[in-house]
Design a protein that fits this description.
The relative contact order is 0.28. This protein is mainly beta. It is globular. The strands form two sheets. Strands 1, 2, 5, 8 and 9 form a five-stranded mixed sheet that branches. The protein contains one helix and nine strands, in the order ββββββαβββ.
Length: about 120
């Protein structure tokens, strides 16, 4: 069975992005509709897959990481407006039986992602 997972690492502090709000949307008829919203745990991961089993279907998806909110909560001084506020990652799922892992490496000044394992 396929599944979609994520995790977030705060590369500025060298720690998991514990407490970061993460929202998952699915593109349907040109609109993005929310599918799930989680708070990253102590290890920077959600408690379980964002989608799995029959809920994981091929299509276009969007992850939104509330990075600015996270950094403010940690007491990081940010410019106004901050360079990085919400990190939006649009991606596709082609194989509903595969594992899609979409990690985020983020700082107040940069971010990177990739398809992990």
């Amino acid at each position: 069975m396929g599944r979609l997972t994520t995790h977030v690492l705060d590369t500025a502090a060298g720690v998991p992005g514990a407490g970061m709000r993460i929202a998952l949307y699915r593109a349907i008829a040109g609109e993005h509709r929310i599918v799930a919203e989680v708070i990253a745990g102590a290890d920077g991961r959600s408690a379980g897959p964002l989608l799995d089993g029959v809920a994981l279907t091929p299509g276009r998806y969007r992850l939104v990481f509330a990075a600015g909110e996270y950094f403010r909560a940690r007491g990081v001084a940010l410019a106004e407006p901050p360079f990085v506020e919400d990190v939006v990652i649009d991606f596709g799922i082609a194989d509903a039986n595969a594992h899609y892992h979409v990690p985020l490496l983020v700082s107040p000044w940069s971010y990177a992602t990739y398809r992990g394992s």
